[in-house]
Amino acid sequence: MLGEPHDLLHEFPEYRDRIIELRHTDGRFARLMIEYNELDAQIRSLEERSLPVADNYMEDLKKVRVTLKDELYDKLRLS
Fold first, then answer.
1. Is the backbone of residue 54 left (phi > 0), alpha (psi -120 to 50) or beta?
2. DSSP H helical ranges for 1-79
3. Which of 25, 49, 52, 55 is such that its CA lies 20 to 30 A from the CA of 61?
4. CB-CB contact of 30 with 23 (8 Å)
């Protein structure tokens, strides 16, 4: 679905408390989360505006987003 939110609280509601804790206590996690949220907002904005965007550009953005999400998820699981 276009424009669907992918922020961490939507993606991992079971880790809500851990997300909040790490955001305040782990600088790297907080920076990655900011980068992830900014990228997610950029992708949603492009999808919602229906402006012409090269498919490979959008795919590249989404690949970066999933890589960030994987790294954040690993920190949630393993911290």
1. beta
2. 8-11, 16-25, 27-49, 55-78
3. 25
4. yes
Q: What would the pLDDT profile of 7-25 be if each residue is shown by its tens digit? A: 899 999 999 999 999 999 9
Residue 46 lies inside a defined structural domain of this protein: yes
The residue segments making up the domain with residue 47 are 8-78
> How many domains is the chain built from?
1
Instruction: With 0.90 as the threshold, say if the pTM is over it.
Output: no
1 within domain boundaries: no
CA distances (Å), 1 to each of 39, 44, 67, in order? 17, 10, 20
What's the Cα-to-Cα distance from 63 to each of 4, 16, 69, rounded to whole Å?
16, 24, 10
Q: What is the DSSP letter of 41?
A: H
